[in-house]
Amino acid sequence: MTHGTPIVTRGSTAGVGIGGIAFLFVLMIGLVLVISLIGYLCSSVVRRDQLPSGRLPFRAGVVLSVCAAVCVYLWGLFYMPSDDVHYLRQSCAEAGGEERAARVVGYETSFVPLRFVCRVDGGGGISTIPSWINPTVGVLVLLALITAAVALLTRDATGRRTMQTTPKGNSNP
User: How do residues 150-163 score in pLDDT, each as one tens digit?
Assistant: First the structure.
């Protein structure tokens, strides 16, 4: 059972790799997300006096973990070949050698988890994505989730914003 795009034969490579527009779109979304999160973290550092005590390390942990996961995913995306048949064959040759690349009968691709496999006749395949990419993204996302959960669980202990009374006697949340 395979996940993602099914195996595509050598004659029909449409939609196998990542097209230029799709690559730029994903890259742009990832970079905007990372820049926005870093901006959010910087604004939290600037107004750390207004935050409940002890909350900044949790925010920083979540933001930095998510940023690192996005950056590692984008790095792995650079190993995904484009739709062109020449680039598909070239990336199979770089990953598994010319001899195995000559026996490629199809391609299999997936974006979550990130995967591009050149299927070789006789079984097996050549993965062009480094093996450390997906586990690293998984660990960083897990770290972000754990840090966010700890931040939520310790929210009352670190001091949630309390109701304050304004000079006119109105309550201000």
Answer: 888 876 554 554 44
